[in-house]
Amino acid sequence: MVSSIAEFVKQVRMEKMDVLEHTAQIFDEIESNSELNHFNVVAKEQAMQQANEIAAGIKIGRHEGKLLGVPISVKDCVCVKGMESRAGSKILSGYKPTFNATVIEKVLVEGAIIIGKTAQDEFGFGTFGTNANIGFEAPKNPLDQDRACGGSSAGSAGFTALTKFTHASIAQSTGGSIASPASFCGVAGFTPTYGLVSRYGLIDYGNSLDKIGTIGKTVEDASLLLGIISGHDPQDSTSLEERFEEKGEAKKIGIVKELFEKSDDKVSKECKKALGKLEAKGFELKEISLPLNSEYGIAAYYLISMTEASTNLARFCGMRYGLHKELEGHFDEYFSSVRSDGFGTEAKRRVLLGTFARMSGFRDAYYLRAMKTRTKLINEFKNAFKEVDVLAHPTMPVIAPKFSEIEKLTPMQNYAMDLCTVPANLAGLPHISVRAGEVNKMPVGLMLTAGHLRENILSSIALEVEGAQ
Amino acid sequence: MAKQAIDKKLLLGVAKNARLNLSEKEITEFLPQLSEILESFGKLDELDVSKEKPSFQPIATKNVFREDKVEKCLSQKDALSNTKHKKDGYFLGPKVV
Predict the structure, then answer these.
(1) Among A6, A116, A128, B6, which is least packed, fewest CB within 10 Å?
(2) B69 touches chain A (CB under 8 A)
(3) Mutation target among B14, B39, B71, B92 for the A interface, most CBs of A within 10 A
(4) For the residues A248-265, what does the mean pLDDT come to?
């Protein structure tokens, strides 16, 4: 049984847990499972140095820190000072940030040990973790290595499921990149309200959608880490000044009709079973319909995210950081040459579509229409939250697919797999994926979504779901 | 949105704007894929959004200002630490004229 973060820290403070030994053991585990491709950077030397400093501090009575000696892995797209941070892309080869993302500063202050950068779809462009760019291999699901971890925070969820040691991961979601891998790997994935966690130091995908969140072995661990990394940051102009609600009661859970209908029968059945247990504990279940989100969410999300991604990726040109070539030719030729070599296939596809959707003559018909549709989708959520406190549905419509199955999907079929996760992400709503059962020995995730800044009610209901397993 | 067929000429125009050189193999692969995706996005035409304002952010945001005074920022050394293309404290770039 792996100790929770809170229990581990208690043991460390009482000197019943040896931080150095624990850190060394987790690296042995990472090394002996390297064929699962969960890490892009394994930061053993740096982490052991940190562990040494923490161990020395404990001996002289330095016991502060909610994460004292806890190994924390970090999705590759979050900048860690001096540690190669590529967002899974060849175009950022060799880039070592000269600063820490705000979330990294926050966990370091609490005594965390950064163990490395986890694998992801290039820039977050993927549902399964299989869009790893040139030079990377797709992360494998530790529960069945023929299956994907889910994406894009693939390595974060995969390693959290695999490890036998206390650990949590800093992950990131644009359209479902925390919930999807958490569901496929059977761990807890917490995506906060948009703006609750600072994005300073995040390598952007889509600015109106990106959120840094957490993945933990349990709801308790994921919630504790989220509490630590959240909070206002003047360095991020979209950072909220409000904290999430300290208290809140939730009794009414809305079962989203369309997302249950569109999911695999066996997956839906497991989620219904988990909700039935909540009903037995006194929660009120009510069917809720979200016809607009379930019908138009995918199209609106992909148009917006691709458009924003195409502008964000415009900065990568081989001059100031990342992939470099010999400075030859006119600047257009040089930039095009570096970008053509540095971006993988899915990144190129999204840059092309995003560039198209905001070109003169097409912008109103595609980009602006998607943004107006988003208003309708947000309003549909607002109406739903007048009737219930929380919305529930399967996180993913299927269990983790096999790599051989993913290969057969067209890009559009691939995008359609995000139908359950994109609506909450478009509306910036907090959501959690919690293990709710299994199908064919693979985990099924239940996704719970609440109104803005109502993270606490999500934690309390997810704990009930987890406890009933 | 008017249904927009993607042909090779349009694809190459978009790629030029995006600073991407596409190989023949990529062009052959992307053309049907992009058409399928755009056709699917056309679904948004079913909704009447004429009275809606666009939601550029999921929650209301406001302009953020700080006092107009010099603050600590990235040093020249740090700014240049990730590039091979530098000279005399400046970035070296490709030809612009």
Answers:
(1) A6
(2) no
(3) B14
(4) 95
